[in-house]
Amino acid sequence: MIPPGGTLRAEALAAPPLPGEEPGRRGGWAAARRRLRELYYGSSEAAHRFRYALVGLDAVTVAFIATTSFLPRNAVVQVADVLLGLVLLAEFAARLAAGTRPWRDLLRPLNLADLVAVACFLIPLAGEGAAFLRALRLLRMLRSYQLVRRLRGDVPVFRRHEEAIVASADLLVFIFVMTGLVYETQHRTNPAIGNYADALYFTVTALTTTGFGDITLPGTGGRMLTVAIMFCGVTLFLRLAQTMFRPSKVRFPCPRCGLQRHEPDAVHCKACGEVLRIPDDGE
Question: CB of 240 within 8 A of CB of 248?
Fold first, then answer.
């Protein structure tokens, strides 16, 4: 029997050995990695609380990025950048240590994007020129299978509107990154782009193909950037519109054929006819 508060230790002892770990050895660095592995990938309540805390850290990071994007770069902002960057670097290192193959995990695209974002926090002198890359940190939100699974179970609103929420997050990340890119490439030479609000205004008008024409990006590079905003932005925007306006579905795997999406009031699977027992919210 596991004593109260001993869940993490019991699950850690039951976890398979890490690569390079000697059988029966449970102390030191191996024990620390085992604990981190449980917190990042385990199913205990402590692990769930830890991952929700990481979501809170990401939310604080997003708010900081959005706020400081419209503020002048001064000593206070640079110090806050470095402090937040150190926290994010520690979390990044802990996440790599929790994996079974840290070096292979490091080469994954999302982890590389996260590393670039952390570097932009830690280099305040170059931060103004590359500050928009900090938004790459947002790419990690809602990309964790464990987190999404937990949100489906804990938050009925997320369960009902998961695809729309994820599509909205992707669109916001794209707008934020493109706004920063437009500002950093144009504000020194383009008098129409004087601040982030101007860059945001241009990005949204280009993304929606409204094209008022009061702000344009001159030169071949500016035109190609505009084309990229229109092409990629419209794709993301249409995806969001599709998830919002098409009939809502519930995600529930059919026990026979595995079909994932069904009508909210479905009794039988439309693919194979299997009886479904889809849980509801008690409404």
Answer: no
pTM for the structure as a whole: 0.61
Structure-token pair, residue 142: 């809602």
* Cα 124 from Cα 78, distance rounded (Å): 5
Q: What is the DSSP letter of 27?
A: S
Note the pLDDT tens digit of each residue in 207-248. 888 878 888 898 888 899 999 998 888 888 888 887 777 666
Contact (CB, 8 A) for 55 and 141: yes
Report whether 186 contacts 217 (CB < 8 A): yes
Kindly report the number of other CB atoms within 10 A of residue 189's CB atom.
Answer: 10
What is the C-alpha radius of gyration for the chain, rounded to an integer number of angstroms? 23
CA distances from 252 to 158, 246, 261, 263, 280 (A): 14, 18, 6, 10, 11
Question: First-to-last CA distance in the chain?
Answer: 38
